[in-house]
Task: inverse folding
């Protein structure tokens, strides 16, 4: 198969998008965004100064009163135009994601589609934002609740889904009448710049949506800024819990903090193995294992040695045949890690697994790469057998294509094992039994539960959030939860005398 | 060649449709008496591409196993579309029948392989395969007419 054409052909100099204008940063700190497949530079990303962050927030604050007064239907129309533009630019947006992140073109298109779905759902805001009322709560007295926007919200984006994750929040924030500042990940900020171009073209008033590039410093400024009402963050538990959530608390902000995971995929003896294996591949190795919904621990249940061996053999055999290469090659099934740091981190965990006595039955440290690309960021699928929950690789998030296989005798044991994790983001069971599935669903301590599903990614009209150390906050992103997060409920009790 | 990802299978389907359309357009140019039927096939091929891409782009997300959905051996479905100067009409129509059989087989196999994974895509494949079944009798009637 041919390599699809690269949309980014020269090194871009990224600017901030503030108050409807593309503004060059005055910062002397600039990072290079690299194509992880080819190691070619794609963009220069400024680490914006405090003044620039303040300017973005000030623009959003100034735009708020008028945007708030814009009718919900008119706000929705802006989103409809944005949706059309996203569809028109679907392929380019997807290829940009592959270039900046490394994921396969199928994965990038999937990310684009998910992002568009958020916009589509948010266009329903005239219905979604309605309050409710009750007449005669006492004689001649009525009561009703209205939902009002709060002001400026900020989003601190992760590198693993550079296009989609900010869209979990921004369409809902803007649809409800708030204004927005997004700080993309400096590792892959280009698709966010492209998105801002389309938002501009869609006719959102200046200041309603702003992009400020930067790193940890800019993120911290947003968390501490007195004019920001709330922050949404997707990233590690370490940063999310100890910095962002804490700062938001100190500064009286609302927060949605979606963090790390260690997901368990439980295969019961009655599972349909043939249909389960592709789901496991996508779960463990899709997006090169760099997602909070990725499978991490594969738990094979039962006393039957033959069943255990059959599942393990099919899993390892299929994983060993995964085609690793450039994501713009349509035949690639797994792209590289997004960064050298990410690869080193995963390699460190593989070493740790070996040190702690796990058995590396598929070694992806030196993968065969399709095409002539530097191996700088590439890893192949790795599978460890004989992993225990006490081992580092059994309990910590690796965020790479490394699977840990565990074996237990019963469903009860599998659930207890999964629930012993400090995380609770996405756990799945593979079974033909409704009773077994129900018990798993009932008892598992996880925000997203899969039944014969490898990647438990909630649709745009359902909330997305984990439990335990995978989530901090109350309301989740997406759907009705997002509408509630981005609005304040106001109760009115009235009596006309 | 083996195809596993949804992207490469969609591209392959597109190529089959484009190649098929080209064959019909070439034939229509040479045999004006049957051009209406032949060009209708070519037009339908182009509609099929739109239908397939719409199905794929509409459902491709991480909820479906896009990178692992297929195991298509392209060798089973390849066909020649170039017509030599001397190719007579009957041979060309026989070749078209053979091509249609292969394309139907491709869509049927791909739909079967991905039916539990790719949501609306297998349905689009099956619909196109079913629609195509009506082509063979039409091509045969052109043959019987003296093609």
Result:
């Amino acid at each position: 198969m041919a390599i699809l054409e690269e949309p980014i052909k020269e090194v871009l100099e990224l600017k901030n998008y503030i108050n409807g204008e593309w503004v060059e940063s005055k910062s002397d700190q600039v990072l290079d965004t690299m194509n992880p497949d080819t190691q070619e530079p794609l963009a220069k990303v400024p680490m914006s100064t405090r003044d620039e962050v303040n300017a973005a927030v000030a623009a959003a604050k100034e735009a708020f009163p008028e945007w708030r007064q814009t009718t919900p239907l008119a706000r929705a129309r802006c989103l409809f135009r944005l949706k059309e533009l996203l569809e028109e630019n679907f392929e380019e947006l997807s290829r940009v994601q592959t270039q900046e992140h490394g994921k396969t073109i199928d994965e990038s298109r999937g990310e684009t589609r998910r992002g568009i779905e958020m916009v589509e759902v948010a266009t329903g805001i005239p219905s979604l934002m309605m309050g409710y009322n009750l007449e005669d709560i006492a004689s001649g007295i009525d009561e009703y609740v209205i939902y009002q926007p709060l002001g400026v919200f900020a989003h601190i984006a992760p590198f693993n889904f550079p296009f989609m994750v900010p869209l979990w929040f921004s369409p809902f924030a803007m649809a409800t009448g708030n204004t927005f500042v997004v700080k993309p990940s400096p590792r892959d900020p280009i698709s966010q710049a492209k998105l801002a171009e389309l938002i501009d073209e869609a006719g959102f008033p200046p200041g309603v949506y702003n992009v400020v590039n930067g790193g940890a410093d800019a993120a911290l400024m947003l968390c501490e800024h007195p004019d920001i009402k709330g922050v949404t963050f997707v990233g590690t538990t370490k940063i999310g819990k100890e910095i962002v959530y804490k700062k938001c608390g100190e500064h009286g902000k609302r927060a949605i903090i979606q963090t790390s995971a260690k997901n368990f995929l439980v295969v019961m003896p009655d599972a349909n193995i043939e249909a389960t294996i592709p789901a496991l591949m996508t779960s463990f190795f899709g997006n090169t294992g760099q997602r909070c919904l990725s499978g991490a621990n594969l738990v094979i249940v039962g006393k039957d040695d033959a069943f255990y061996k059959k599942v393990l053999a099919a899993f390892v055999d299929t994983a060993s045949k995964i085609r690793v290469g450039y994501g713009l090659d349509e035949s690639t099934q797994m792209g590289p890690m997004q960064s050298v740091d990410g690869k080193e981190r995963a390699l460190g965990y593989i070493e740790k697994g070996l040190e702690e006595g796990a058995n590396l039955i598929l070694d992806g440290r030196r993968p065969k790469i399709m095409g002539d690309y530097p191996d700088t960021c590439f890893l192949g699928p790795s599978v460890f057998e004989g992993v225990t929950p006490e081992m580092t690789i059994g309990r910590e998030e690796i965020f790479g294509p490394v699977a840990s296989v565990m074996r237990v005798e019963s469903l009860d044991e599998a659930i207890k094992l999964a629930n012993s994790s400090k995380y609770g983001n996405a756990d799945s069971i593979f079974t033909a039994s409704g009773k077994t599935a129900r018990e798993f669903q009932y008892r598992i301590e996880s925000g997203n539960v899969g039944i014969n599903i490898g990647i438990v990614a909630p649709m745009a009209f359902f909330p997305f959030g984990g439990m335990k150390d995978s989530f901090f906050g109350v309301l989740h992103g997406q759907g009705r939860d997002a509408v509630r997060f981005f609005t304040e409920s106001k109760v009115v009790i009235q009596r006309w005398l | 060649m083996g195809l596993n990802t949804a992207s490469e299978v969609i591209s392959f389907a597109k190529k089959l449709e484009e190649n098929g359309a080209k064959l019909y357009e070439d034939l229509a140019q040479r045999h004006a008496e049957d051009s209406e039927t032949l060009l209708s096939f070519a037009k339908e091929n182009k509609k099929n591409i739109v239908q397939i891409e719409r199905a794929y782009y509409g459902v491709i997300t991480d909820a479906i196993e896009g990178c692992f959905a297929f195991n298509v051996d392209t060798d089973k479905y390849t066909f020649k579309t170039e017509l030599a100067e001397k190719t007579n009409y009957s041979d060309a129509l026989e070749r078209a029948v053979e091509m249609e059989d292969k394309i139907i087989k491709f869509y049927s196999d791909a739909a079967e392989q991905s039916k539990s994974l790719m949501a609306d895509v297998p349905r689009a494949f099956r619909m196109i395969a079913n629609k195509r079944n009506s082509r063979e009798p039409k091509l045969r009637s052109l043959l019987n007419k003296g093609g």
In short: The longest strand of chain A covers residues 141-149. DSSP finds 17 helices and 25 strands in chain A. The CA atoms of residues 120 and 255 of chain A lie 24 Å apart.
